[in-house]
Design a protein that fits this description.
Elements lengths: L1 E5 L2 E5 L14 H14 L9 H18 L15 H6 L2
Antiparallel strand pairs: 1-2
């Protein structure tokens, strides 16, 4: 498994270079290593008794970010917009 940097995070690519592994496939060890690297780079010290909770939150955050970074079509845009001029006509 080859590691490469992408947007400041370590992304995993398979040996063929075809793409990143899914978040669900990231092992707990890899996630902890990635968090340790990022915390060291940011010079942040997390107390040992809180590290498990921080690691859990980091994993949840990565899953949420993966959901946000999906391609979207025009159908995903809001179906309505509003104009203050139109709203003020009724007053």
């Amino acid at each position: 498994m080859m590691r490469k940097w992408h947007d400041g995070c370590i992304a995993r690519a398979d040996k063929s270079g075809t793409g990143d592994r899914a978040m669900g496939e990231t092992s707990a060890t890899d996630l902890k290593l990635e968090l340790d690297v990022l915390l060291r780079r940011a010079e942040v010290a997390v107390p040992a008794d809180r590290m498990e909770a921080v690691l859990s939150g980091y994993g949840d955050l990565k899953r949420m970010c993966a959901l946000l970074r999906q391609p979207r079509t025009a159908a995903a845009e809001p179906s309505n917009t509003f104009s203050l001029v139109t709203l003020m006509k009724g007053v």
